[in-house]
Amino acid sequence: MSGASRVAAISVGSNSLLIALKLVVGLVTGSVSILAEAIHSSIDLLAAVIAFFGLRAAGKPADREHPFGHGKWENVSGSVEAVLIFVAAIWIIYEAVKKIMHGVEVELLGWGIAVMAVSVIVNTLVSRNLFKQAKIHDSIALEADGQHLRTDVITSLGVLVGLALVQFTGLKILDPIIAIGVALIIVKAAWDILRKSFGGIIDTGLPPEEEKIIIDTLAEHKSQLVDFHEIRTRKSGAERFADLHLVMPGTLSVDEAHKMCDHLEADLKRRLPRLEITLHVEPCDDSCKSCEMSCDSRRSG
């Protein structure tokens, strides 16, 4: 099991425990906000399971049927998680509105407050680890899982404060109102995850800061190149792909052009880990000023 998969497995375990606690206390107290949190955590659990299997699938090496690897399984995983979160939010709003219309009965709030406090502490620790590992492994699946738990921390805090207010003020209608607030936060988190995950499925280009690294690296070799153009990029899970055209002086031999391409690839991969780059070399016709400058630079060197 890879390091990323182990982190996802820890998330599965912690979510399972919190779901059991929230469901039991939510049913005992009759609190729709606690039940909303239980549903939210259930979606987090399902998301963690999807992330676990998505990472295992994405980690498989390239093969004949998948020459570019299996990285997009991570994007599929994140997109499915987002859709599930939307469904959970709709259910929470439905149940909360029913409570508002037909009356609210909430009891034994001390238990609910205790469970929400435990949830905040546990999910804060687990989500921090998920974000740390997501950065290390450049994993959209772990990042989505961490985003779920970060949202869970926020909503659990909201429920915790709300239950305390109900306890001290006796305004039981605050419980379903808080549940609706939880649902709206969940919708925002789901949209953010879906936008980022789905972008990888439809081959959205690399982030501007990463494309700038490619352009700046090529620009550093202007004395050896004439020009470059038609840069295309995309990302599949943690894998990055780029292809572009290089214009080189027509006086270069095939061997010299090949060595230059190897040098550029090494520079780019050093600055952008897990980058696969395809370079198409075009000879300059020696008629442009840029080519003359490049040739003169090579001669003087």
Automatic annotation (TrEMBL):
Location of the Cation efflux protein cytoplasmic domain: 206-284
Family stated for the protein in its record: Belongs to the cation diffusion facilitator (CDF) transporter (TC 2.A.4) family.
GO cellular component: plasma membrane
Pfam families per UniProt: Cation_efflux, ZT_dimer
Gene Ontology terms describing biological process: intracellular zinc ion homeostasis
Entry membrane topology: Multi-pass membrane protein
The keyword Coiled coil belongs to this UniProt entry's keyword annotation: no
This protein's record includes keyword Magnesium: no
All copies of domain Cation efflux protein transmembrane, residue ranges: 10-198
UniProt-listed InterPro entries: Cation_efflux, Cation_efflux_CTD, Cation_efflux_CTD_sf, Cation_efflux_TM, Cation_efflux_TMD_sf, CDF_Transporter
GO molecular function: cadmium ion transmembrane transporter activity; ferrous iron transmembrane transporter activity; zinc efflux antiporter activity
Listed PANTHER family: MITOCHONDRIAL METAL TRANSPORTER 1-RELATED (PTHR43840:SF15)
Keywords, sorted A to Z: Cell membrane, Membrane, Transmembrane, Transmembrane helix, Transport
Subcellular location: Cell membrane
SUPFAM superfamilies referenced in this protein's UniProt entry, alphabetically: Cation efflux protein cytoplasmic domain-like, Cation efflux protein transmembrane domain-like
Bilayer-spanning residue ranges: 7-28, 34-55, 76-97, 109-131
Name by which UniProt lists this protein: Cation diffusion facilitator family transporter
